[in-house]
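Fig. S4 source data, part A: sequence.
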Amino acid sequence: MKQILIDAYGAPEQVARCADIADVGAPGPGEVVFDVLYFPINPADLAFCRGQYRLRPPLPATPGAECVGEVIAIGAGVSGVAVGDRVINLQRENWTQRRRVPATDVIVLPAGVDPKQAAMLRINPPTARLLLTDVVALSPGEWVLQNVANSAVGRLVIRMARARGWKTVNIVRRQALFDELTALGADACVLEGDDLAQQVKAATGGARIRLGLDAVGGRATTLMSDCIADEGTVCHYGSMSGQEAVIPRHALIYRGVTLTGFMLGRFLARHPADEVQAIYRELAADLLAGTVDAPIDGIHPIEDIREALIHAQQGGRSGKVLVQANARA
C-alpha cells in the first residue's frame, strides 16, 4: 500500500514522498480497517510538513488530519460499524491508502453522502459550529463579526449562523466577494481597513456585537476589538498573518473586552464522547442535506502528492485541493 511520508521538515512539496509500505493487517478486537478514499490538504497539514505545527513527531512521519474511508473489515466485538460503511476518522496520519483504528474513532456516515465532501467534514464544520455555540451564549437575532469570511470556516459560519437565527457581518479584502457571500446568507459585508469600526457600525445599525471570530492575528485582531461591545469577546482561532493576536490595553482594562483562543480538539474534549459523536452525526446529516459543503479546486491521485502540494499552496484557488487515495465507483 502507499503512504505519504516526510523524512525531514521543510517545504511540503520537497519533503513529502509517496512510499510503498507494508499493509496494516487484519483488525484486532474492537478495531476496523478502512480504505482511504480521499483526503484534503489543509493549512495545518502544510504547517505540519514545514515543522511549524504544534505536533512534531519523530521522523519519518505521515501528515493528514482528515480523510474519508470505506470499511473493508471489522474486528471482534465491533458494533455499529459494518463492512461497506463510509466513515471519517478522528485520528491523524491519514495521508495513506489504508488505516486500522479503534472502532470508537470512526464516525459512520449516512448512505449517499458525497465522499469528496465528507473528506472535509472532520475539522472545518465542527470548528464553525463550536465557534458559534461554545464561546459566547448568543441570543436570537444577535450579530457575529468575523474576518477571513470567504474561507472554508467563514462560509460555514455564515450558513450555520443564518440557520440558527444569528446575523453575520463579514470582513473581506475584496468587494468582489460581497455578492457571493450575500448569496450564502451573509447579512453584511465590509472591507478590511483602518475604518473597520465605522464600517461595521454603519452596516449593523450600531448593533451591540458580543462575539468576534479572528483568524488573522496582528493588527486585524486589534481592529476587530474596536468593533466589539464592552464586555464582549474576540475569539482567535487562526493566525494567517503569522503575527500574535493583540488587543490594546484600553479595550482590556476600560471596556472589559476578552481575548480568548479556540482549538478544535480542546473544545471537543469539553464534550462527552457520545456528544462528540452526535455533533458529527448532525454535521453529516447537514452534509447529506446540502447545507454544509465546501468548494473543491482540484483532485490529484496519491502518487502525485508533490503536484497536489504545489497546487494547495497556490494563491487564487477557488476551494480545497483533495487527494484520491483509492478509486471507487
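Fig. S4 source data, part B ends here. Residues 273-289 form the longest helix (17 residues).
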